[in-house]
Design goal:
Layout: E1 5-10, E2 13-18, E3 23-30, E4 40-45, E5 50-54, E6 66-71, E7 85-86, E8 92-96, E9 105-109, E10 115-120, E11 134-135, E12 141-145, E13 155-159, E14 165-170, E15 185-186, E16 192-196, E17 206-210, E18 216-221, E19 229-230, E20 237-238, E21 243-248, E22 250-251, E23 258-263, E24 268-274, E25 289-290, E26 296-300, E27 316-321, E28 324-330, E29 338-340, E30 345-347, E31 350-357, E32 365-370, E33 376-381, E34 396-397, E35 402-407, E36 417-422, E37 427-431, E38 434-441, E39 445-449, H1 462-465, E40 475-478, E41 485-490
Antiparallel strand pairs: 1-2, 3-4, 3-41, 4-38, 5-37, 6-36, 7-8, 8-9, 9-10, 11-12, 12-13, 13-14, 15-16, 16-17, 17-18, 19-22, 20-21, 21-23, 23-24, 25-26, 26-27, 27-28, 29-31, 30-31, 31-32, 32-33, 34-35, 35-36, 39-40
Length: about 500
């Protein structure tokens, strides 16, 4: 006897019909697209041979290894611009630069993709957190806000495990700095290190240290062009060699930014490279990543490719070995992406990052660059719809090799998303389904049933599916386009109505 799996929807009630096996289903949509023309879902029966098949990958790398874990709606956050961090239990923590009371918030996303707002900023306690968080061994979270506080010039804050927020430092401008954009680095003694975009002696930003009891020390005030950098926007890299490494967006001899080193033992800063803004790139927004040999890797927002088919939005991925600069990849601003603003993640000779623009949907990309060959691969091209758009923050790679990130735009409510890109799966073992079955026309189709509203763990092709998840539902729903094949990963289903 054949077993069929059919998903049906009537009005807002969604239910499963016939049987609910686990495995993989292949299908397509027919006869119309959208809410006004209910599409028919075509699935296949379970007759067929089981085997191992290559994971299907859509053009430009839009693979079924991409998924949306959470969609912000404004009240629970909006416009996330920073990287995420993850605790040992798998919970994700991050910031949104807007939402809540309108001034941004700190959130937690558990392993079922349920969000908890840990703190919503109101102004005196800080406003507009753009940077990522750092956690200590006791579960306290630390971060910065670029505005708010006693002087309106930003803060360093702490949130304890019970959700109580404490302002550790209020920036005053001169000499301590103003408007910290990036997150913090923490050493083994609990000291925090960061940068401010503005303020300091010359008004070009600072490097600062905050000790474990909240005392701030200005380690360096940037002097600006031509001898020093200006406007550091990225988080510092605290290396085991005792040095801090970072970038400035402006300044330097080429007035297009710098890569710098700060020696904590001697309290001295040195410019390692001055960008010229031409083929070598310029205006590094993100910070640097370092390999075991001390080689630095980073991105620039401009320069690189001499070709400009889209008029702007190019940028580079670079390697800095001592004073030797190598452009590993130059973006064109087309389908390969453009305007990379994030730090890079390094694993097994491959760099992973995001671009703000470009891609097939011109809403940014998740990409990888092979260091040995300089070849770039687009892992996902954002559409600006259900999957999100314009990712600015760096990626987080968890111990399993799964990448997590945030997109500041797009999503069901156009307030941004939390996404994952799983590059650990290259093949699947599944039953090749046969004897297609055509279901009734319906306006909504159940894609994945789960005890959460975000569908974390789904296995789909978002470039094809335009998948979005209404927060107030216990199941994920989406609109599927006409005559497109897709893969549904059926992990677990109960009786869903």
């Amino acid at each position: 006897m054949k077993r069929l799996l059919l998903f049906c929807a009537i009005s807002t009630s969604i239910h499963t019909c016939l049987d609910k096996p686990a495995g993989f289903l292949f299908g397509e949509m027919e006869d119309g697209v959208g809410w006004n023309r209910g599409p028919a879902l075509v699935l296949a029966s379970l007759d067929g041979t089981e085997g191992t098949y290559q994971n299907p990958v859509a053009p430009q790398g839009n693979s079924n290894q991409f998924g949306v874990d959470f969609t912000f709606n404004g009240r629970d956050g909006s416009t996330p611009t920073a990287a995420l961090i993850q605790d040992i239990a798998g919970n994700l923590y991050g910031t949104t630069s807007a939402g809540g009371y309108g001034l941004g918030l700190v959130f937690k996303l558990d392993t079922s993709s349920r969000e908890t707002v840990l703190h919503a900023f109101q102004g005196p306690d800080g406003a507009t957190p753009n940077g990522s968080l750092v956690a200590d061994g006791s579960g306290n979270l630390y971060g910065t806000t670029s505005a708010g506080g006693d002087y309106g010039l930003g803060t360093v804050f702490k949130i304890d495990p019970t959700g109580v927020e404490t302002v550790l430092h209020n920036f005053a401008g001169n000499p301590d700095g103003a408007n910290p954009y990036a997150g913090l680095a923490m050493d083994y003694g609990g000291n925090l290190y960061g940068t401010t975009e503005n303020g300091g002696v010359s008004g070009a930003g600072t490097i600062f240290k905050l000790d474990a009891v909240g005392n701030e020390t200005v380690l360096h005030s940037f002097g600006g062009a031509p001898t020093d950098g200006a406007d550091p926007k990225a988080r510092l890299l605290l290396h085991s060699d005792g040095n801090l490494y970072g970038t400035t967006f402006f300044g330097g001899s080429g007035s297009s930014g710098t890569v710098f080193k700060f020696d904590l033992a001697t309290d001295t800063e040195a410019v390692l490279y001055n960008f010229r803004g031409n083929l070598d790139g310029g205006n590094p927004f993100g910070g640097v990543t370092q390999d075991s040999n001390g080689v630095l890797y980073g991105t620039t927002e401009i320069g690189g490719s001499p070709f400009r088919p889209y008029g702007c939005c190019r940028g580079t991925v670079f390697m800095l070995n001592g004073s030797n600069m190598t452009v590993l990849y130059a973006f064109t601003g087309g389908n390969d992406g453009g305007t990379p603003a994030s730090d890079l993640v390094f694993l097994n000779g491959v760099l992973y990052g995001t671009t703000l623009s470009g891609g097939t949907g011109q809403n940014g990309t998740v990409y990888s660059v092979d260091i040995a060959t300089g070849s770039e691969s687009v892992l996902h091209g954002f559409t600006g719809k259900g999957d999100g758009g314009m990712p600015q923050g760096s990626l987080l790679m968890n111990p399993a090799g799964i990448l997590f990130g945030t997109a500041q735009g797009g999503g069901h409510f156009k307030q941004g998303t939390v996404f994952r890109q799983d590059e650990t799966i290259t093949t699947i073992t599944a039953r090749r389904y046969a004897n297609s079955f055509r279901g009734n026309n319906s306006k909504r189709v159940l894609l994945y049933g789960r005890d959460s509203d975000s569908g974390r763990g789904t296995s789909m092709q978002p470039g094809i599916l335009d998948f979005s998840l209404p927060k107030q539902r216990d199941i994920g729903v989406g609109i599927l386009p006409k005559n497109q094949e897709f893969l549904i990963s059926v992990a677990r289903f109960g009786n869903v109505w």
